[in-house]
């Protein structure tokens, strides 16, 4: 089972938010969707789940268009922020009523799991959603996403507002569910480092385009931060794929992306350092604001 996104574009009036997205999401993987504020992550996830029409392009599940295709959509669930303002549909609902509603429209709903997770997160089923704290609303979003049992489950900033204990609990639950099932998860997050180990692949969405989609481990193994005396660094990085070279006095630094089979060996006056996912993201997507 796979989802294919073919040349998907989205305009809001004259503003082009997605600029030709080609993407394949395979079964049985956890993807991290990472991008700056306004990069288009929520828009992309809403289009991948047919909650929002694309302006151009197609989304296919095993070759079949998902738009107005109830069977295809029964395999896809997008857990987006529950809007708790007074004019939202969820307003006024109690937690148990919201879960009941989820049960009616999610064909693979796991009631026992929803019950278990609600207890685990200490969510009061009688509480109105509008009275929940921000973190508790995120927990409810996570409960529904996991209990949806959808083959493709998308979570938009699921850990937003969660304290560190609840975030750890979420990552653990996600991994448990992932190892027991063949489900695919796409998680958008701004908290990159603590989730980096969970993502089998990362997708960097930058200014409406996919800048990178790669196995996380490969990406980390093939990224090296080089610094040292300018001449020595220049010799080392010659012919290599480099990002953000910076010169400070007689020193130079740059991020090097090694191609398959390429190696770097440090010499006199040069330091080689591994980089983490957050650093790679800042270098590739940070632009002028990078520090
Ligand atoms: N319904 C809408 N009408 C008009 N513009 C919109 C609408 N939804 C999103 N946008 C615009 O599209 C762009 C992408 O928004 P989107 O919410 O997809 O980004 P994001 O990557 O999820 O951002 P964040 O990380 O801040 O949540 C932004 O410039 C936003 O203002």
TrEMBL record:
Gene3D superfamilies for the chain: P-loop containing nucleotide triphosphate hydrolases
One GO term in the molecular function aspect is: ATP binding
Ranges in coiled-coil conformation: none
Kindly indicate whether the keyword Calcium belongs to this entry: no
Q: Which InterPro entries match?
A: AAA+_ATPase, ABC_transporter-like_ATP-bd, ABC_Transporter_VariousFunc, P-loop_NTPase
Q: Where is the ABC transporter domain?
A: 3-232
Q: Which UniProt keywords apply?
A: ATP-binding, Nucleotide-binding, Transport
PROSITE patterns according to UniProt: ABC_TRANSPORTER_2 (PS50893)
Does this UniProt record's set of keywords contain Cell membrane? no
Query: What name does this protein carry?
Result: ABC transporter ATP-binding protein
Which organism is this protein's natural source?
Blautia hansenii (Ruminococcus hansenii)
């Amino acid at each position: 089972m796979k989802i294919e996104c073919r040349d998907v574009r989205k305009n809001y009036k004259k503003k082009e938010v997605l600029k030709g997205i080609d993407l394949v999401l395979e079964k049985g993987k956890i993807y991290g969707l990472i991008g700056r504020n306004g990069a288009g992550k929520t828009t992309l996830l809403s289009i991948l789940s047919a909650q929002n029409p694309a302006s151009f392009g197609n989304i296919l599940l095993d070759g079949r268009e998902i738009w107005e295709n109830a069977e295809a959509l029964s395999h896809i669930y997008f857990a987006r922020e529950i809007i708790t303002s007074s004019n939202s549909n969820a307003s006024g609902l109690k937690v148990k009523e919201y879960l009941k509603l989820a049960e009616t429209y999610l064909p693979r709903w796991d009631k026992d799991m929803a019950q278990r997770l609600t207890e685990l997160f200490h969510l009061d089923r009688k509480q109105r959603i509008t009275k929940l704290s921000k973190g508790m609303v995120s927990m409810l979003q996570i409960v529904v996403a996991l209990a949806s049992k959808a083959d493709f489950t998308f979570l938009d900033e699921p850990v937003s507002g969660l304290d560190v204990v609840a975030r750890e609990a979420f990552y653990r639950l996600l991994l448990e569910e992932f190892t027991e099932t063949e489900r695919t998860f796409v998680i958008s997050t701004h908290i990159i480092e603590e989730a980096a180990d969970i993502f089998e692949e990362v997708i960097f969405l930058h200014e409406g385009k996919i800048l990178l989609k790669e196995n996380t481990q490969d990406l980390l193994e093939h990224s090296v931060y080089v610094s040292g005396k300018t001449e020595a660094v220049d010799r080392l990085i010659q012919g290599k794929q480099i990002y953000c070279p910076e010169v400070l006095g007689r020193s130079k630094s740059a991020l090097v992306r090694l191609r398959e089979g390429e190696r770097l060996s440090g010499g006199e006056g040069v330091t080689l350092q591994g980089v983490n996912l957050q650093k790679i993201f800042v270098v590739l997507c940070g632009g002028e604001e990078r520090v």
